[in-house]
Design a protein that fits this description.
- The chain has 1011 residues and is of the alpha/beta class.
- The chain contains 45 helices and 28 strands.
- A hairpin with a 5-residue loop joins strand 8 and strand 9.
- The chain binds flavin-adenine dinucleotide and iron/sulfur cluster (2 copies).
Length: 1011
C-alpha cells in the first residue's frame, strides 16, 4: 500500500492521478473524467460533505470496471462505486476513483416471473425497473422516496428502506443474491447456502472466516445489535444470529449477500443483483387519522400498526400549514382534515381483496373511537385522492427544504429508529433538545417503524458543526435508552460511521474491521466509511469548509431575495440584501442546491431535458449548480466563473425553467444562465450569430419591409449552408418566415381610456405568425371585450419599434438592453395596470418574462403590479370563464381530438391547465396532454448548428413520437412559437404537419357572442 494513502481516513494527499488517468484513457472504453470541473461535480452527494475525488470513470461495461479495479490496485488508488449519488451521509464522497454506474450499467439481465426474481445491473433506477415490471403484475417493493433517481446498486449499498417497509422490509430482506467483484479481482456470487456451496475457494475462505468471527462474537451480536426493523448501521453481522424482528430469509437460513447489503461499497463492487419481487397490490385504501396533539399521534401509532397497514406516515402541523398555504395542495390537504389537527397519520392498507382493505379501514375507524378519538378518521377509498395526498406529504418536505438563508435543515439524526412504545417520549424530548440549541425541526415520515425524519436547522457555515455534535450526542443517549438504532435508514457514510463503535461497542467494531480486511485487505473499497472513519464534524471535509467565501461581484440581476439570514428559533428571515453575500445573493441562490439529485429524473415534469438526453452530471441542474458554486468560490481556479469550462457546463441548458418549478429548493438555472452569460459577454463579447439573434426585435421592422430578401436564406440554393458556415445556424433548419402583413401594422385598437383588456403582441406573433395575434384579437372581441393593442408611448425614442419583453436579449446575457426594453414596456403598460386592466399576451416565453425576469431587473414596485396583471391569453379566458363573465359561443370543429403540448415556461408557471380549460369550451373536442419535457427548440437553441442534434434528441423523447402517432384528423396545439417550429421540422419527412396556437383554434370555432 502506498504510504501516502492512509487506510482509514479516506483522505489522500498525494495520488498518482496523472498515471491513473493515462492508463484509464488507454485501457477502458468508458468515459474518463479527470478535469477539475468533473471532479468537483462528483465531490458531493446529498450530505454536508465535499471531498475531491481522484477522478471519475463512467464505465461502458463490466470489463471496464474490472480493468479499472486492476489499475487502481496496481497504483494503490481507492475506488468508490456510485449510483445516483443521493446518499445523505456522505457515502459517495471520497478521495477515490469514482465509478458512476448510472449511465451505462443499467440493464435488466433476467426476469424470472416463475421464481419471482429479477437480476439487474447496479446502475438501473428503481422507477425504471418498476415500470418494466408493472405489466407483469409485480414490483420491487422497497419504495424509497428517491425512487425516480436511486439505483439498485446504491439501494443495496445503503440497505435502503421505503415507506412501506413495515409490510415488505428493507433492502436486506429483498435481495436474493449479489454477484460481486472484490478488490483483489476475485469474482463470486454471494447468496444462500446452496449458492455458497459452489463458491470459488477465495470467496469460500472469506465466508468461512466471517462465520468464525460471527460465532466468536455471538454474545456481542445478541446484546449490541438493536432489535428493530430499521437498523442499517455497521455490517450485517447479525445475519448469522438475527436480531431484526423480520426474518432475513424465508427459511431462517443465512444468505451471504445480506452481508454486502448496507456495506456502502466498502467490501465489494456489486456487478449484478438478484432481487425478490412482490405481487403488485390491486386494492388500496387510506385512512387519515387526525390528532389534536402531536404527542397523541406518536403515542397511538403502536396500536394502529397492529391492524397490519402497509404504511403509517406522519405529517405534522408545520407541514399541514405549508400545504395549506400552497394553492395547488390546499384543497387536497383540506379534504384530509377534521378541524385543525396538530398531526395526521396516513394509514394505508393494500392487498388483493378490496373487501379486506375496506374491512381494515373500518377497523381503524373503530380503533380510533376506542382510543378516545371518535370521528378522527377521514376515509379515502379512491385512488386519485389517495395519490394526491401522498404527493402533498412529499411536497411538504420540499417546501421545508426551500428555506432561504444559510440556516438549512441538516440530515444527521434524520433516521434514528426507536421502538414504537417510546416514540412519543423520544420526539418530545428531542424537540426540547432542539429548543435548547436554538433550533427546531419538522417531523414527518415513517411512524410505522419508529423512524421519523427530522432535520434541525443549522448554519454549517457558522457554528453548525458544534451544534450538530451536541444534538447528535443527546439524541444518541436517548436512542440508547430506548434500545433503538442511531442509523435507521440512510446509512453511515461520513456523518455516522463514527457512531458505529458507539452503537455496536468496541468488540463488534473490531470485528467489522476484521471483516473489512478479509474482503478488502488493501483498503481500496470506499475507505473511511463504516470502519476507520473520520469525525462527523471534521470541518475540513465539509462542503462549506472554514474560509469558504464566494468572490465579490455585482450581479446584473437582482438576487437580493436570496441574500438573507434566517433565525430557525423564531422562524424569521431578515430583509432582502442583508445576508452578507459578497455576490449580492447570487452565491446564496446557487447554494440552495443541496445535491438531493431530484433533477435526475425522467418522469412527468420538465426538469432536466439536457440530462434526459445525455445522462451526464455536467448537463444536469445539480452538476451546473455545483460547478457554479465551486467556480464562484474560487475552487476551480482563477476566473473560473467566466471560463470555457463554465460555458460548456451551461451550454445545453435550454433555459426551460423546469428546475425553477420542479427542483425542491427552487434552483432557477435559467435565471442563473442569464447572469452567467451577462458576465461572460462582458469578458468575451458576443459572436455575430448571438448579436443577430439577440437584436432581432431591433431589426425586425426592416425585415418585415423586405421579407422577400430576408427569406432568401431558405429559398436560394446554398444560402442555408452559408448561414451554417458563417453564422452557425443549422442548415437542416428552416427559419421562421418574414411577412409584410404583420399584426401591428393594421391592428384595430380601442382607445386606451375605455379598454377592458390590453393585447400585448410579441415579436414572434407580430412578425412571423400574425394570424395568431389576429385570432386572439378576434376571440376577445367576440367575447365582448374592448381590446386595446399595446404600443410604445408617444415620445418613446424608438416609437417606430414595437414593444418587446427583452427575451432575446436576456437569452444572450444582454441584461442592460433587456432592461431598456422592459422600461419601455413598463411605461406603455403602467397606465393600464394602475387601473387594474389585464395585459394579455400570446407567446409564453415573452409574456411570462413580465411575471418573472421583470421582477429581478430593478424596475421597482410597478413591476410587481404589472406581474400581477399580466396573463397569457388562455389564462385570461379561463379566469373570466370561472368568474362567469366569458360570453363566448364556440361551435364544434371538424376535428374531434386534439393533442396539447405545453411550453416549458407554461409548465413552470402552472399555466397549462388554463389551455385545457378553454379548449374544454369547444364542444365535442377531446384534448389529450402530451407528457413532454422541453420540445428542444427553446428559442434559438435548436436553430444553432452545434445544438441541432441535442435539440432533436429532446424532441424525440416524447413530443415527436406522440405527434407522429396522431392521425391527420387530430389537432396539434402548442402555444410556443419555437415548439410549433420544432413540431413542423421534426415530422416534416412524414408530411406537413402544423401545430397551432390555442387562439387560432378558438377563433376557428367561434360562433356568435352570447347575448
Ligand atoms: C430527498 C431524499 C430522500 C430520501 N429518501 C430515502 C428513503 O425513503 N429511504 C431510504 O432508504 N433512503 C432515502 N434516501 C437516501 C438515498 O436516496 C438512498 O439511500 C438511495 O437508495 C441511494 O441510491 P443511489 O443510487 O443514489 O446510491 P448512491 O448514493 O450513489 O450510493 C449509495 C451507496 O452504495 C454504494 N454503491 C453504489 N453502487 C454500488 C456498486 N455497484 N457496488 C457497491 N457499492 C455500490 C455507494 O458506494 C454508496 O456507499 C433519500 C435521500 C434523499 C436526498
Ligand atoms: S438542482 Fe435542485 S433538484 Fe437538483 S440536486 Fe440541486 S436541489 Fe436537488
Ligand atoms: S433550465 Fe431546464 S435545462 Fe436548464 S438546468 Fe433547469 S431544467 Fe435543466
Amino acid at each position: 500500500m502506498n504510504a501516502a494513502l492512509p487506510k482509514q481516513a479516506g483522505l489522500y494527499s498525494s495520488v498518482p492521478r496523472n498515471d491513473l488517468a493515462a492508463r484509464l484513457q488507454r485501457e477502458v472504453e468508458g468515459e474518463v473524467l479527470f478535469d477539475q470541473g468533473s471532479r468537483g461535480r462528483y465531490a458531493t452527494d446529498a450530505s454536508i460533505y465535499q471531498i475531491d475525488p481522484v477522478g471519475v470513470l463512467i464505465p461502458k461495461s463490466m470489463t471496464d470496471v474490472r480493468t479499472a479495479l486492476s489499475i487502481c490496485r496496481e497504483l494503490e488508488v481507492p475506488l468508490l462505486a456510485r449510483g445516483g449519488g443521493t446518499s445523505q451521509c456522505g457515502q459517495t464522497v471520497g478521495a477515490a476513483l469514482v465509478i458512476d454506474n448510472s449511465k451505462y450499467l443499467n440493464r435488466i439481465v433476467e426476469l424470472d416471473i416463475g421464481a419471482m426474481t429479477v437480476t439487474v445491473e447496479p446502475g438501473i433506477v428503481l422507477d425504471h425497473l418498476n415500470a418494466h415490471l408493472k405489466p407483469h403484475g409485480v414490483w420491487f417493493p422497497v419504495d424509497v422516496s428517491t425512487a425516480a433517481q436511486c439505483t439498485l446498486g446504491g439501494m443495496a449499498g445503503n440497505n435502503s428502506c421505503g415507506s412501506r417497509s413495515i409490510a415488505y422490509g428493507n433492502m436486506v430482506h429483498n435481495v436474493h443474491s449479489i454477484d460481486a467483484l472484490l478488490s483483489n479481482g476475485t469474482e463470486g456470487l454471494f447468496g444462500d447456502e446452496n449458492t455458497m456451496r459452489h463458491a470459488a475457494p477465495r470467496v469460500a475462505d472469506i465466508v468461512f472466516r466471517v462465520q468464525a468471527i460471527a460465532l466468536r462474537e455471538r454474545e456481542q451480536i445478541e446484546s449490541r445489535v438493536p432489535a428493530v426493523l430499521r437498523r442499517v448501521g455497521g455490517y450485517n453481522l447479525d445475519i448469522f444470529y438475527p436480531q431484526n424482528p423480520r426474518p432475513y430469509t424465508d427459511n431462517g437460513s443465512v444468505n451471504l449477500a445480506h452481508l454486502l447489503v448496507g456495506s456502502e461499497g466498502t467490501l465489494a463492487y456489486t456487478k449484478q443483483i438478484t432481487l425478490k419481487l412482490a405481487p403488485l397490490p390491486t386494492s388500496k385504501t387510506l385512512g387519515v387519522v387526525n390528532f389534536p396533539t402531536f404527542y397523541q399521534a406518536m403515542a397511538l401509532t403502536q396500536h394502529i400498526v397492529k391492524l397490519g397497514p402497509c404504511a403509517v406516515e406522519l405529517v405534522d402541523r408545520t407541514m399541514i400549514d405549508l400545504a395549506r398555504s400552497n394553492p395547488a395542495f390546499k384543497p387536497v390537504i383540506e379534504q384530509a382534515l377534521r378541524g385543525t389537527p396538530e398531526a395526521i397519520l396516513l394509514v394505508e392498507f393494500a392487498g388483493d381483496s378490496s373487501e379486506e382493505q375496506f374491512r381494515k379501514l373500518h377497523q381503524l375507524v373503530e380503533l380510533m373511537g376506542d382510543l378516545g378519538l371518535p370521528g378522527s378518521v377521514v376515509e379515502m377509498e379512491g385512488a386519485p385522492e389517495q395519490k394526491a395526498l401522498w404527493e402533498v406529504r412529499k411536497a411538504g418536505l420540499n417546501i421545508m427544504m426551500s428555506m432561504r438563508g444559510d440556516g438549512k435543515p441538516v440530515s444527521f439524526i434524520e433516521d434514528c429508529a426507536v421502538p414504537l412504545e417510546h416514540l412519543a417520549e423520544y420526539t418530545s424530548r428531542l424537540t426540547e433538545v432542539f429548543r435548547k440549541h436554538g433550533t427546531r425541526g419538522t417531523w414527518y415520515a415513517h411512524a410505522s417503524v419508529g423512524t421519523l425524519h427530522v432535520r434541525p436547522i443549522l448554519d454549517m457555515q457558522a457554528g453548525g458543526a458544534k451544534k450538530m455534535r451536541a444534538i447528535a450526542e443527546e439524541a444518541a443517549a436517548m436512542v440508547r435508552e430506548y434500545k433503538g438504532a442511531f442509523s435507521g435508514e440512510h446509512g453511515d457514510g461520513l456523518v455516522r460511521s463514527e457512531w458505529v463503535s458507539w452503537q455496536f461497542g468496541s468488540r463488534l467494531t473490531r470485528a467489522f474491521e476484521e471483516i473489512k480486511d478479509l474482503f478488502d485487505p488493501d483498503g481500496l473499497m470506499n475507505p473511511g466509511k463504516i470502519v476507520r472513519c473520520s469525525k462527523m464534524d471534521d470541518t475540513s471535509l465539509f462542503r462549506f469548509k472554514p474560509g469558504y467565501q464566494p468572490v465579490a461581484f455585482t450581479p446584473a440581476l437582482d438576487w437580493s431575495a436570496w441574500n438573507v439570514s434566517s433565525d430557525p428559533d423564531t422562524d424569521t428571515i431578515t430583509a432582502p440584501g442583508t445576508g452578507g453575500d459578497p455576490a449580492g445573493g447570487f452565491a446564496k441562490a446557487i447554494e440552495m442546491c443541496n445535491n438531493n439529485g431530484h433533477c435526475r429524473k425522467f418522469d412527468a415534469g420538465t426538469m432536466c431535458p439536457s440530462y434526459r438526453i445525455t445522462r451526464d452530471e455536467q448537463h444536469l441542474t445539480r452538476g451546473r449548480a455545483n460547478t457554479l458554486r465551486l467556480a464562484l468560490s474560487g475552487q476551480l481556479g482563477p476566473d473560473a466563473f467566466t471560463s470555457d469550462e463554465m460555458r460548456a457546463t451551461l451550454d445545453l441548458c435550454v433555459s426551460c425553467k423546469g428546475c425553477k418549478r420542479d427542483c425542491p429548493t427552487g434552483v432557477d438555472m435559467a435565471k442563473m444562465k442569464i447572469e452567467f452569460l451577462h458576465q461572460w459577454q462582458h469578458k468575451h463579447g458576443l459572436t455575430l450569430k448571438e448579436k443577430l439573434i439577440a437584436t432581432l426585435p431591433r431589426w425586425a421592422p426592416w425585415a418585415a419591409r423586405f421579407p422577400f430578401l430576408f427569406n432568401l436564406r431558405d429559398t436560394l440554393p446554398g444560402a442555408a449552408a452559408l448561414t451554417e458556415r458563417y453564422l452557425g445556424l443549422s442548415a437542416k433548419r428552416t427559419l421562421p418566415r418574414w411577412r409584410r402583413d404583420t399584426f401591428l401594422r393594421h391592428a384595430p385598437t380601442t382607445e386606451a381610456d375605455v379598454a377592458d383588456v390590453v393585447l400585448f403582441a410579441d415579436t414572434f406573433n407580430n412578425y412571423f405568425e400574425s394570424e395568431n395575434a389576429r385570432a386572439a384579437h378576434k376571440v376577445l372581441l367576440a367575447a365582448g371585450y374592448r381590446v386595446h393593442v399595446a404600443r410604445p408611448v408617444p415620445g418613446d425614442k424608438s416609437e417606430s419599434k414595437p414593444l418587446c419583453c427583452g427575451r432575446t436579449y436576456l437569452a444572450a446575457g444582454m441584461v442592460d438592453q433587456a432592461k431598456a426594453e422592459a422600461r419601455r414596456v413598463m411605461e406603455a403598460l403602467q397606465p393600464f395596470v394602475s387601473r387594474g386592466i389585464p395585459i394579455v399576451g400570446l407567446e409564453p416565453s415573452c409574456l411570462l418574462t413580465l411575471r418573472d425576469e421583470f421582477l429581478v431587473m430593478g424596475l421597482g414596485d410597478d413591476a410587481q403590479l404589472l406581474a400581477k396583471n399580466a396573463f397569457l391569453f388562455e389564462e385570461f379566458l379561463a379566469q373570466e370563464h370561472k368568474a362567469g363573465r366569458l360570453k363566448l359561443r364556440l361551435l364544434p370543429l371538424p376535428e374531434k381530438r386534439a393533442l396539447l403540448h405545453g411550453h416549458c415556461h407554461q409548465k413552470a408557471f402552472d399555466a397549462v391547465k388554463p389551455i385545457q380549460q378553454v379548449l374544454a369550451l369547444i364542444p365535442e373536442l377531446h384534448v389529450e396532454l402530451i407528457e413532454s419535457s422541453c420540445c428542444g427548440m427553446a428559442g434559438s437553441f435548436g436553430y444553432e448548428a452545434t445544438h441541432y442534434e441535442a435539440s432533436m434528441q429532446m424532441a424525440e423523447l416524447s413530443l415527436l413520437p406522440a405527434v407522429r402517432k396522431a392521425g391527420q384528423d387530430t389537432l396539434v396545439i402548442a402555444d410556443g412559437t419555437s415548439c410549433r417550429h420544432q413540431i413542423a421540422d421534426g415530422v416534416r419527412t412524414q408530411g406537413p404537419r402544423r401545430a397551432e396556437h390555442v387562439a387560432l383554434v378558438l377563433a376557428r370555432s367561434l360562433g356568435e357572442p352570447r347575448q
